[in-house]
Amino acid sequence: MAELDTFTDLLDYPMYVVTAAAGDRRAGCLVGFASQCSIDPPRFMVWLSKANHTYTVARTASHLAVHTLRDDQKRTAALFGGRTGDDTDKFEHLAWRRSPHAPAPILEDAAAWFLGRIEGHTDGGDHVGFLLAPVETSRPGPERPPLLRLSDVLDLTPGHPA
């Protein structure tokens, strides 16, 4: 079996916080596997680990919110990447709101965000891809801030069970 490490070790892609809500449950996690995958119609794919609490909520959600973080938001990344929603309310001390379009929590302090309707799922092994159609996006800021990247969070220990 061919390993991808020699290829992926060169990548330093942006990190995202993905949030979901279904019923009275809300969840969010740090995600590195995500990308725009269509221009027309616009589509974005996020991949959630099957071991992650957010995946269990997202499976029954109608929408997901995808957030980019500034490079100075490592503390937020550590909360969403280093703690599990199985035993932590990650939203308790954060400013967030719900969109009128869907219940997925939107982080007020994100560099940018969009809310996407889940159009489908793809099983990719230990992760499941959620295909999103954007329904609402944040307004563009006055400048493009430096974003949090994989190299900024390599020292985080994942909070979800192995």
UniProtKB/TrEMBL annotation:
InterPro entries according to UniProt: Flavin_Rdtase-like_dom (IPR002563), NADH-dep_flavin_reductase (IPR050268), Split_barrel_FMN-bd (IPR012349)
Domain Flavin reductase like: 11-156
SMART domains: Flavin_Reduct (SM00903)
Keyword line: Oxidoreductase
PANTHER family: FLAVIN REDUCTASE, POSSIBLE OXIDOREDUCTASE
Identification of the protein by name: Flavin reductase family protein
Taxonomic classification: Bacteria, Bacillati, Actinomycetota, Actinomycetes, Kitasatosporales
